[in-house]
Amino acid sequence: MATATYLPLGSNVQVPRLSIELDTEDWQWLASNRELRVGIFSPDFAPFQFTYSGAFAGINADYLKIISYNLGLTPVIVLYPDRESALQALRDGAVDIVDDVDGAPLGGAGLLASEPYIVNPAVLVTRRGAATLPQDFGGLRVAVNPRKLLAPGQRQTGSWVNLATPLLGLSAVAYGQADVYLGDPLSVAYYMAAGIFEDIELQKRDQLGSIGGMYTLRHSSGRLRHILNQAIASIPDVWRQNVLYRWGLPTASFRAVSRLRLTEREKRWLQRQHEVRVVTLNVFPPFSMYNRNASRPSGMSIDLLQRLSDLTGLRFVYQGVDTAAEMQQALVSGAADMGAGMFWSAARDASLDFSTPYLTSAVVLVGRRGDPALSADATYAGRRIATVTGSSSLAQLRDHYPLAKVVPVASPNEALLAVLDGRADMAIQSQLAANFYLRNYFRDELEILAAFNIAPARLAFAFGRQQDELQSIINKALALLPADEQIYVLNRWRAQAPPQINTWYAYRTEIYLLIGLAFASALIFLAWIFYLRLQIRKRRRAERALNDQLAFMHVLLDGIPYPVFVRDLEGRMVLCNRSYLQAFNVAEAEVLGRKITESPSAEQQAEQAAQVHQQYLDVMHGSQGAVFQDMEIDIDGRKRYLYHWMLPYTDSLGHVAGMIGGWTDLTERTELLHQLQEAKEDADAASRAKTTFLATMSHEIRTPMNAIIGMLELVLRREPDPVADRDALQVAASLRQVAENLINVFQGLARQRNLTLALHREQSDEQDVEIDAARLKQVLANLISNALKFTEHGGVTLTLRQRRLDSGLAQIELMVDDTGPGINAADRRKLFEPFTQI
């Protein structure tokens, strides 16, 4: 489904009370249906339909307001991109009626049409003085609006061209692109009254029939059609004339308008600020200009501002500038509050706000008189077209006619001068400005060649971003002004005698330039001979010194075995030595004048090249000074280790002019260090394996060795006695003697580790006890051995306590103390697990 846009009703027509003849069922139907959904469609059709201000306005909007108000219905306006989309929405039930602006035939079965609310007979428009037209249009180029769908028989002869709006159709006739325009008298009269066209006239033909605005409904909406027909029939002729009067020419004086409806915020703003600074273009006829010997500007925009001053009470103070760019700068900077007339464009809308457009004009091409005429489908390939910088025509020219050559100028006046002095072939102008210039100043030199097939130019008041209240007040004042007042202003300037523009404002820049050039030329001429001879001698000496310096610098740079380069503030290569080129295997032409991201070597490493480029910019635009860093990069698929250095250099004024950089390739040294590190790690791993093996083996061997040592000691101390051997476990032994023997065994190991090994006995009565001395010595040997092994400083103490109990028993306590780190809690839990080494 086509995109639909909801619009408010923008009509400010006074609504009469109508006497509508409806029966009870009709009023009941109206009571249960409070909204009337009305579909309209693009493009706008002046003066019947206007939507560019964001609201539905025009003659059709006035009629809709009168009818809906008297029926008690709230109109809901829905804008569609074309007529077929609007009719399809009607069939689908999205809208109740479609406002057919020009009474075109119904688009298919199942639809009804109301009685026309305005009758508008068809007319023909030709150039003034044209020959009588043939009845069948044979051999003629006929421009027609696509909304006016003619019967097939009327299109059998002639060349028919569909143009979107009456404005384009009239322009085609006025400038020779069509012989005749078929349209309605109201839209034609609207543009003719505006003074846009001078050389066209109407030719009415009765056989063309009458057409008019009507409402299209679904076939099932018979009751609504009956209600609308009754409402249309009840509108008196005086109110129909009043609606047309609002869009026609005024009488000798303006009518009174309603008071402004301002918000409290806008009222407070008016109380604070009665004076508004308005910036105008010095030479922008007929919209604003300074006449000779005049202290204030004049023109259409100035007259309209005077009318707005009467409505709002504001006093406008004018200041002139030469170009639209200067006007825009004054508004953006706050030097002015409001601009008196600026054509809207998307580029200007990005920094400015605009009022509701108060004038719409076709765009035309102005060229030298005698140049060949242009066809409607011309591409303007190779033609030099002058247009104002920042205007909407500039953007549309580049979008729709890319083959044309754009000649940017600062003002519309300069665009015409560019055509006169040969800098451009044509100039883009609004139709009103072109007519004014050609009628009053360039009648014999220039002429309008063709209507430019782009969107019409919209003239509006411009504001800075901080002028919301002023913009709202001006928009409300413009809405109160009837359209005929604005048309009156346009016609007043159309009929006015040619004003004498103050050429000082038009050419003061050129005058200043000429005076300065003349004075400078005189000084140069007086000193020329002496200066030239002196300059030649200095130049020769400087060239010789420079060549010597350049030769030395190249030899110096190329002799450095490390890459060195110089880049400008944008990161583009200025100079590099041979080592740099060899490092990347590129030619000098491939890197000079390019960023590192644009060099051939950056194709495979785009992300890394972007990071390095950003580092270059940070060095030049930052405050850290010289930077030295290690860097890894890939060159030809091989990783290189570099010691990279960068530092900014300054010009004679101390400003940073670029950077100098280079690097030292540490790849081979780094790889050797990596190999050394790997060898060291392998040796450490082997050492750890050896230590683990020895520790494990010593632990495993120590236990059986202790038993062997104990058995040998027993053999040495007594005679062999098989019977005693069998009963050795129950032989009485002295604990003191067992402990001393054990201390003696480990005394040598203690001295090697610079540790003390002592026996401490706490017993009053020492007696022999029946005990397995070998097993006891094995346990104590393990404890003392571990204590000596894990103690770095201090010593180990074996404490022996023996206390006699009753019944021939004794309590024995053996304790081994050391000054070592001990065993952590996690390892203590593993002490008595089998096959576990702590």
Automatic annotation (TrEMBL):
Catalytic activity annotation: ATP + protein L-histidine = ADP + protein N-phospho-L-histidine
InterPro entries named in the record: BvgS-like_periplasmic1, BvgS-like_periplasmic2, HATPase_C_sf, HATPase_dom, His_kinase_dom, HisK_dim/P_dom, HisK_dim/P_sf, PAS
Positions of the Histidine kinase domain: 696-838
GO biological process: regulation of DNA-templated transcription
EC id: 2.7.13.3
EC class: transferase
Gene Ontology MF annotations: ATP binding; histidine phosphotransfer kinase activity; phosphorelay sensor kinase activity
NCBIfam families: sensory_box
Protein name per UniProt: histidine kinase
